[in-house]
């Protein structure tokens, strides 16, 4: 999959490294965001969901003929940073640590449970409405993610985030 990251790189260098690797995998990047205080992400062309699933989530059954739609992404979480404690109304998510290191906190309530280290290659299934947070450890973490939209006619987007706590004072 991904080549190991050199952990002492600047953010822009980490993004450049991952971008090259995604292009080498023949993925079309339709958007990227390096401006998130916790790191950022790449959005992959949704029509490439089958190839993305085959590369990163081979062990997961996805019924592409159902009424759901899917959005593949790559998250990059910076060392010692974390995403907001959050949940979503219009999606569930699949996560897999594909390079580096990261942790995850999750709960069915607004109370944040202690974080657990993610294991590279292990699939994490986050239910619609499940509270969660991705956490950077000592080095950069790279997480493959699939948004499973629960309403094909009103797919989830970046505004479908209910933040319960955020280190960066975002609403």
TrEMBL record:
Which SUPFAM superfamilies does the record match to this protein?
RmlC-like cupins
Q: Which UniProt keywords apply?
A: Isomerase
Q: Supply the Pfam families for this chain.
A: MannoseP_isomer
Q: Note the coiled coil stretches, chain numbering.
A: none
User: Care to name a GO molecular-function term for this sequence?
Assistant: isomerase activity
Cited InterPro entries? Man6P_isomerase-2_C, RmlC_Cupin_sf
Mannose-6-phosphate isomerase type II C-terminal domain span: 64-166
Q: What is this protein called?
A: Phosphoheptose isomerase
Q: Which organism is it from?
A: Belliella alkalica
């Amino acid at each position: 999959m991904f080549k190991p990251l050199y952990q002492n790189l600047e953010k822009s260098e980490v993004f450049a490294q991952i971008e090259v690797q995604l292009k080498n995998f023949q993925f079309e990047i339709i958007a990227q965001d390096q401006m998130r205080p916790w790191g950022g992400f790449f959005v992959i062309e949704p029509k490439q969901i089958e190839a993305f699933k085959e590369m990163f989530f081979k062990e997961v059954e996805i019924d592409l003929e159902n009424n759901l739609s899917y959005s593949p992404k790559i998250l990059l979480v910076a060392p010692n940073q974390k995403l907001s404690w959050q949940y979503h109304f219009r999606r569930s998510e699949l996560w897999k640590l594909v390079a580096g290191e990261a942790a995850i906190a999750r709960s069915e309530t607004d109370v944040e449970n202690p974080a657990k280290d993610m294991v590279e290659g292990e699939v994490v299934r986050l239910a619609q409405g499940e509270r969660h947070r991705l956490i950077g450890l000592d080095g950069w973490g790279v997480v493959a993610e699939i948004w499973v939209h629960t309403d094909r006619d009103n797919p989830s987007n970046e505004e479908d985030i209910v933040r319960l706590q955020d280190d960066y004072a975002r609403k």
